[in-house]
Design goal:
Layout: H1 2-15, H2 22-31, H3 40-57, H4 66-77
Helix pairs in contact: 1-2, 1-3, 3-4
C-alpha cells in the first residue's frame, strides 16, 4: 500500500510537471521533510495527493457521491488553489499539443 501511494503520487504529479523525483516524493510522504530548491507548491502537490489517496482508502464501503468527489478535489488543492478547491471548473481546459 505504501509503495502504491508513493508511485501513484510521483507519477500523477510528474505528469502535471512536478519536478520532484520518486525518491524525493518518498521522503516527503514518509518524513514530511522538505527538499531543498523545490517549490512549496511541489511539496503541497505531493502531500495533498498522498492525503487524498489515504482519504479514498478510508471510503472503501462508502457510496460515491458528488460531495465525496468535491472533497477529494478540495484535498488535492489545499494550500494551492483555495478559491477553486472542491468546485467545478468554469472555463474550458485543453491539453497542450492535443488534437482532440
Amino acid at each position: 500500500k505504501e509503495n502504491y501511494i508513493i508511485k501513484n503520487t510521483y507519477n500523477s504529479n510528474a505528469i502535471e510537471g512536478n519536478t520532484l523525483t520518486e525518491m524525493e516524493t518518498r521522503v516527503i510522504i514518509e518524513t514530511g521533510i522538505t527538499v531543498a530548491k523545490k517549490t512549496l507548491r511541489e511539496h503541497l502537490e505531493v502531500k495533498n495527493h498522498a492525503e487524498a489517496l489515504f482519504f479514498i482508502e478510508d471510503l472503501k464501503k462508502v457510496t460515491l457521491s458528488e460531495y465525496i468527489i468535491k472533497s477529494i478535489h478540495a484535498i488535492i488543492l489545499d494550500g494551492i488553489d483555495r478559491a477553486n478547491a472542491g468546485k467545478y471548473r468554469s472555463v474550458d481546459v485543453r491539453i497542450g499539443g492535443a488534437t482532440h
